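Example 4.3 (complexes with small molecules)
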Amino acid sequence: MRFARLVSAGVLALAAYGLLLGVSAFAGTDKPNENKPAVQKPEPGSPGDTLTREDARMALLVYKLLDKDGKIKGANIERGEQLYMQNCRPCHGNDGRRFNFSLYYEEPAFIGDRARKEMPTFWYQINFGDKERGMEAYIDEFPLQDLIDIAGFAQTLP
Ligand code: HEC
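Answer. The structure with heme C bound is encoded below.
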């Protein structure tokens, strides 16, 4: 009796060991393949692409357009100035200081402050606007590069 129990315990132990080996061998073959991304990205605009237009524009800013200091990369500042003067100056003024975006008890904040310190807010606003506050949406008015140029120029405003 004792012998039989010992044998079955041994068989069990062996089985467990085998299982472990099997699992680790399987895990071994499942190493991520360098040539294949871990997560397959859906094509932009395809049915598998669940990003909203807003998400996609904001992700672009965060991943591609901002450097580590929060500055816009790849902006043509001179062109941005022209575009600002033609399109934004009528409301925001030459130097961007016509509207103060802060609440009365906060430090004043103008176009330049927003663009330097809070580019995500700035970027969202110039792309999607704010109907209630009277700010236009420009995502369908300007090519992406124009908005990048405007954002780059805005960071130079006082
Ligand atoms: C028709 C007038 C008008 C034009 C043109 C306009 N804006 Fe605005 N914008 C506004 C108004 C009004 C607000 C809201 C101001 C407020 O609530 O204090 C605003 C808000 C903003 C804000 C939001 C700031 C914040 O922190 O909430 C940004 C950024 C901005 N405008 C940038 C621009 C840029 C850049 C352009 C040119 C591409 C532009 N605007 C053109 C009227 C305009």
